[in-house]
Structures are given as structure tokens and as C-alpha cells.
Write a structure and sequence with these properties.
The complex is a heterodimer. Chain A is α/β, with parallel strands linked by helices. Chain A folds into 2 domains: 32 residues, no CATH class; 104 residues, Nucleotidyltransferase, domain 5. Chain A contains 4 helices and 8 strands. By secondary structure, chain B is α/β, with parallel strands linked by helices. Chain B has a domain of 94 residues: 2-Layer Sandwich (Nucleotidyltransferase, domain 5). In chain B, 39% of the residues lie in helices and 12% in strands. In chain B, strands 4-3-2-5-6 form a 5-stranded mixed sheet, covered by helices on one side. Chain B is elongated and about 95 Å long. Classes of the chains: A alpha/beta, B alpha/beta. The interface between A and B is large, with 59 and 50 residues. Strand 2 of chain A pairs antiparallel with strand 1 of chain B.
Chain lengths: 155, 210
């Protein structure tokens, strides 16, 4: 019995030698998955509608995003369109796409996609206005950004 | 033997440094992958373009009003849930002859499983889904309808691919992503394109109601 009693002298310290390893592992995971938010939203963060038939957008560098949502200022009603860092009128969408095109290589232009990130409570009229603008300048590939989920919760 | 006496470097603060970095990346991380419903817009038409004449029976008319209610074919009010089945039944009807394919003369749809109703669509490549929305319709509703239409086409293509290639259309698309090498990719692409050709997506969106 005395053999066992000897050990009760003091709790041995838990070795924290592997703690940095664990933390580093987590660190690398987050470093790899991090995407820095590239635009500061001037509108309320759009609540995306849900859908089941979703496709992942590939080639992130070829995607230009258009945000649609309500203004942060409660006195302003109606849908606001934001690209990059500013709120624009729908007629300026073409200029935005053209500037996006100018940054890409010529051969990549046909693969460019416009991702519309709109709030589910915004009006279809705004979206169709944007679509019409895009159509006029041959930016034909679009994607309605959605989350995966049940469609009946959209309205 | 001198090696034994080298003092160990104190790594105690390593964890602190790592934690600091970890927290920084935790805060800045946005995990959302951008995904959505893809659509291809129709090319802009010349001002003097005359649209082709289309039989009314080949058009499936969906109207969404500003109260987010669905009206189909001008007669029935339905719920979003019911839309998919109706769209499938309409496209897959195969009541007549379609547009010529692969240089072959116009033929009946021999892969359709529909009712072959005379009063409904002739052929999947003639069947047009017309989505008329109101400017005041909510975007969520619009996406729901788009999603159900997409789901209908995917379901039809799935049935077609299962019958022909013993794999579903969705599986083919997954395989396409995982496929190694150009030859393998091309082989799958042929199948996908074939399915798309047999059930082409023809969605018309006329000007919204003001």
C-alpha cells in the first residue's frame, strides 16, 4: 500500500507542451479558410432567400457582386443597390460591370459571372432592372445568391 | 556529451502567440461560400426583331402578383410546393412532334413519360415556361419560383440520365467536378450536354407588371 500512498504528495502539472501544436493546427485551418471581407456594406446585410437547387460559384476572381437591400437609414425606403463601396442607381450597373471587365484579361470576360446578393424582401422590379442592364452589355451569366434551405420560408 | 547541457528554449509563450493569431483569424473569417441559382440571360435582340409565333399550348404561364400569389395558365391559384409537379407534367407531356434535333426530321418525344395530352405541350424542346412577375413581388418569392422550375428540370434530366446512363444527372455533375484528366471530363460532358439537349431549359420572362 505504501507504494500508492507515495504518489499523493502533489498533483503533477498537466503537460501543456502540446498545446501550441493544437492551437497552431486551428490557426492554420482558419488562416487557410479566411476570406477577408472585401466590401464594407452600406446597406443592411441582405438576408438571402433559401433554395434547394444551388450551384457553387467557381472561379471567385471572375465573380462580381451586386448587393441589393434596404438602406441603413430608416428614413430612406425602397431598395438600394450597392457595388464595391458605394450605393448606386441601377443605370450605373453597366459602368460597374465594364470597370470589372477592364480589370480582367480579355479571354476571361465571357466567363465572368455577376452574383446578385439581394435581400429576400426586396422587390423583383429592382432585380429585373439590374438584369435588363446586364443583358444590354452582354453580361449574361448571372447567379442569384441564396442559402440552402426550404423555399417556403422565403415569403 | 555537451549536448545534454544545452538549456531548453522556453516554449511557454508560443501558445500565447499562436492564440493571438488564432483569435485574429477567427474574427476575420467569413466561411460563406458563394452559391446560388445560375441563370443565363437571353441575348439582347435588335429593335426590329419579330418574335416567332408560338402555340399557346406550348407555353406554361406562371404569374406571380404583388401579394406573392401564384396563378398558372390563367386559371388556377396554387402553392409554390405544387409548382414543381405541374411543371414536370407540362414539359414531359410529349403530345406532338418537336423541333428537329441532330438534323433528324421533327419526331415525337420517345423519352417522355408524360400523359401525351393533346392540349398540353408538344415536346420538351418546344415547351416554354413563362414567368410573369410583378414589380412588387418579393424577391424571395421570385427565387422560390425559379428554384421550383430549376428543380423540375433537374428531376426530368435525372430520370432521363438514370434510364440512359444508369447514373443521375446530379451525380454526373458531381463526377464532372471530380473527374481527372481532359478525356474523362469530356466523356461526362457529352452525357450532360445530351441530357440538356433532351430537356432544354426555355424560360421566358416578359416585362414585369407595373
Amino acid at each position: 500500500m505504501s507504494k500508492f500512498r507515495k504518489k499523493k504528495k502533489g498533483l503533477p502539472a498537466i503537460s501543456t507542451a502540446s498545446l501550441p501544436d493544437i492551437v497552431f493546427m486551428l490557426l492554420f485551418f482558419f488562416m487557410v479558410t479566411t476570406v477577408m471581407r472585401e466590401t464594407e456594406l452600406k446597406i443592411n446585410n441582405p438576408v438571402l432567400p433559401a433554395a434547394t437547387e444551388v450551384k457553387k460559384l467557381e472561379h471567385k476572381s471572375l465573380v462580381s457582386s451586386i448587393y441589393v437591400g434596404s438602406s441603413k437609414n430608416k428614413n430612406i425606403t425602397g431598395d438600394k443597390i450597392q457595388v464595391n463601396d458605394k450605393i448606386i442607381n441601377y443605370t450605373e450597373v453597366q459602368a460597374f460591370i465594364l470597370s470589372e471587365r477592364a480589370e480582367r484579361k480579355e479571354e476571361e470576360v465571357p466567363y465572368m459571372t455577376t452574383s446578385i446578393k439581394a435581400d429576400k424582401h426586396s422587390n423583383v422590379g429592382t432585380i429585373l432592372d439590374i438584369k435588363e442592364q446586364l443583358r444590354e452589355i452582354q453580361a449574361l451569366k448571372i447567379s442569384f445568391s441564396v442559402t440552402k434551405g426550404d423555399v417556403t420560408k422565403n415569403f | 556529451m555537451a549536448r545534454r547541457e544545452l538549456p531548453e528554449i522556453n516554449a511557454g509563450s508560443m501558445a500565447d502567440i499562436a492564440f493571438l493569431l488564432l483569435i485574429f483569424f477567427l474574427v476575420t473569417t467569413t466561411m460563406n461560400v458563394d452559391s446560388g441559382i445560375s441563370r443565363k440571360l437571353p441575348e439582347p435582340q435588335a429593335a426590329d426583331y419579330v418574335p416567332p409565333v408560338i402555340k399557346q399550348k406550348n407555353v406554361f404561364d406562371i404569374v406571380v402578383n404583388r401579394n406573392n400569389q401564384l396563378l398558372i395558365e390563367g386559371t388556377d391559384f396554387i402553392k409554390v410546393r405544387e409548382l414543381k409537379e405541374l411543371v414536370i407534367a407540362f414539359i414531359d407531356n410529349g403530345g406532338g412532334t418537336g423541333n428537329p434535333m441532330d438534323g433528324q426530321p421533327a419526331a415525337e418525344c420517345d423519352w417522355c413519360n408524360g400523359a401525351k395530352d393533346e392540349a398540353s405541350s408538344d415536346h420538351p424542346n418546344k415547351a416554354i415556361i413563362q414567368l410573369q412577375s410583378d414589380r412588387g413581388t418579393s424577391y424571395g418569392m421570385y427565387i422560390s419560383v425559379q428554384n421550383e422550375i430549376e428543380a423540375a428540370y433537374v428531376a426530368l434530366r435525372n430520370t432521363y440520365c438514370l434510364k440512359k446512363y444508369r447514373t443521375s444527372y446530379t451525380q454526373l455533375q458531381k463526377d464532372m467536378k471530380d473527374a481527372q484528366g481532359k478525356a474523362a471530363k469530356a466523356a461526362i460532358k457529352v452525357k450532360i450536354d445530351n441530357a440538356k439537349k433532351h430537356y432544354p431549359q426555355i424560360i421566358a420572362e416578359p416585362e414585369p407588371i407595373k
